[in-house]
Amino acid sequence: MRQASASWHPSCCVPVIALPACPGTRMHNPFAKEPGVDDSSQRGDYTHYLAQRMAPAIQALTLLAVAAYLLAAGGRALVSYSPVPLWLRLAPTVPLAVLALVTRREKRPMPLSLLALSCVLVLEIGVNLNGVGQAAGQRLVLPGLLLPVASSVIWIGRWDFIAAMILCALGPLPMLLMGVTNGLPIFQYAVYMTIAISVATVLRAFMTRTLFEQYRLEKQLRAQAHTDGLTGLLQRNRFLELARYALDDIYVRRVPAAVLYLDADHFKQLNDTYGHAAGDEVLIKLAGHLRSQMRDSDLIGRIGGEEFVVLLPGVDLHHAQFRAEQLREAMRVVQRPDRPLTISIGIAPCNRPGESIDSLMSRADRAMRQAKLNGRNQVVVDQSGA
């Protein structure tokens, strides 16, 4: 059974956040391997987190690229002659403006990276157009050297950063190679571009570490806010929130479902006799056995004290009774200080279209209390919706 996370999907339960080891001891090394996460789903979460954080910077830089290019091309037209018509040198502003507009509406990682790379490519074309006709000694155009550093902090993944640096390094070469009579301009360009890309690499490495640490801390805070600190199960408010999403999907797909309300028998007596530490240990074991009996699609929450609720999507009443009896029997292996643990379970089948999770829980709670009155350690089905 996976536990609580920041989002829910109808086909899976919400997993508890598995936090990676604190990377604080690696922050001093900007060239260490990029931080990662444990599995592909976590890597996907981190990539989308980066996209959300990088999107404003990418949007701002694309707008800045339009303004900077207009200024550079216009300034070149004022101070020197170029064989390339002005309208052609200004033409890159059109795709740059389009890219800036599209970027404002985009939040997904891959499209954002492709848009940013397209912006760099258009700028490099513009650098070459504006460099035509310059004397050999004037061809070390500053924008071409600024691009690696200026764009270093916006790349979401390693692949787009490498692609951008290759574009930045190779982009001005056509302009530099025109009319070259010796290797000095190329050598100077290679030295300056190597320095620029090295600075960009260091900046990106430190930015990546900083964002990963922020990502890790935010996930930790979400886990603490959404999960019960003792059992690791969903807290009441988070369970209710996710259960509402789940029920909406259940009603749309018209599949059966049921809610189980569980309560540990004679739990107050356990706390009063053996102390709260003993009670907490029993609750931890109870929660562990609950998880072991659940599917990925089931949703579990600790409602309060020794009371727990389970939402079973895609389960009819007969199957829900079978699952509840399995749970009841499974709990008997948990040993209290005085006796094996027993639980009472109430079942509320989801047989009223549009019924809220609060109503279902109330019905299941009523059935659980009837199980208590009947002698505890049993399963009772709420019949009010039949």
Secondary-structure blueprint:
Elements lengths: L39 H40 L6 H5 L2 H12 L4 H23 L10 H9 L7 H13 L2 H5 L6 H43 L9 H18 L3 E8 L2 H8 L1 H17 L6 E6 L2 E7 L3 H14 L12 E7 L7 H17 L5 E3 L5
Helix pairs in contact: 1-3, 1-4, 3-4, 4-6, 5-6, 5-8, 10-11
Structure characteristics:
386 residues; alpha+beta; Alpha-Beta Plaits; 13 helices; disordered N terminus
Describe this structure as you would to a colleague.
There is one protein chain. This protein is α+β, with helices and mostly antiparallel strands and 386 residues long. It has two domains: 23-224, no CATH class; 236-381, Alpha-Beta Plaits, CATH 3.30.70.270. It contains 13 helices and five strands. It has a five-stranded mixed sheet with strand order 2-3-1-4-5, sandwiched between helices. α13 (357-373) links the parallel β4 and β5. The protein is elongated, with a radius of gyration of 31 Å. The two termini are 31 Å apart. Residues 1-35 have low confidence and may be disordered.
Q: Supply the number of structural domains.
A: 2
State the shape: elongated
The radius of gyration is 31 Å
Query: Structural class of the helices, strands and pairings?
Result: alpha+beta
Q: What is the element string, with H for helices and E for strands?
A: HHHHHHHHHEHHEEHEHE
Proportion of beta-strand residues: 5-15%
As laid out across the biggest beta sheet, the strand order is: 2-3-1-4-5
How far is the N terminus from the C terminus? 31 Å
The number of E-state strands comes to 5
Number of helices: 13
Spans with pLDDT under 50 lasting ≥5 residues?
1-35
On the 0 to 100 scale, the average pLDDT is: 82
Specify the helix fraction band: 55-70%
- Biggest beta-sheet profile: 5 strands, mixed
